[in-house]
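seq:
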Amino acid sequence: MKLGLTGFFLYALTLVSVAQTTLTSTGSGDWSSPSSWDKKRIPGDKDIIVIQAGHSVELNNDISLKNITLRVIGILSLNNGRTLNLNSGSIINVISGGRIKSQKPSDESAIYLAGAAKFRGTKVFNSNWGAGVIYGLAYATSTTGNIDQSGTGFIIGNLPAVWQDFNLFRTMDNQVQMVWVTSHETGTRIFQIERSRNAQTWSVIGEIESPGSPGSQNIYNFVDSDPGSGIVYYRVREIDPDGMYKFSSVRSLRMEESITDNSVFPNPARSVVQVKHIKVPDGQSKLFLYNVNGQTIKALNLSQGSTLETLDISGLQNGMYLIQIRHSDGSIQHNSLVKY
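struct:
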């Protein structure tokens, strides 16, 4: 398949479910001002929105967004009775030291998630805080209750894991390696790995217990040494400290296919990987390594006749990367890589 760089990233995003775009506050200011955010645009659907420590972002307009993750490390201030309306695919995490507040206790500002009220300026969440104030640690999702119906709205003192990625990789010996990435975990939790032949009936094939890390990215992996043949489906069940659970997205592989001449091994990797590719017909083929923002991290010339390239990734930050090999005949190979 011949793809330009833009097409390559569109294709790769479809394959590996690259993490959402992150917008970070640049200082204190108005939510609806592009200058308040590092990407110089206001937050949109599917964004990860981070209000940094020491920053106070004010909501002075009614805002509606879908499928966002809002991380409040500084202050989110809802002013003049304004509302933040989010859908069921959104989540709000108030990190330790963060705060959500209304302009004044009598202010009817509100946050709604899937139509349920999670925050009101007149609501007392903790008698020590007063009305219209929430301090971290706290989180709200579509399942944390409606404060207008005697629900909690926000769960105080805990955070769920934020899922950023879940991918499958077939190893050279035809096993299946699963890699998933989370962040902002608090409390010991369990990840159960489940396998299915029809995406309907599931069996637990393994379990990982993790204390998590609330301020950093956590990368997990698990190998299924006996996946069998045919199409195999996988998912991960995350069980929180309070017994609540949720599933990752479902991923699948067709195992009867042989290992192709387009692979990366090991994957994920810490220091060195082998990139297998079609035989280089001349000295004009090149390998490019990109981060998820499309920036070129490395560019290498491939030797004529070679089929394997060693790539040193020891100096890279942990996370997801994209590999592209361009040949002189216009053909392009691509793959994904996880550095941990």
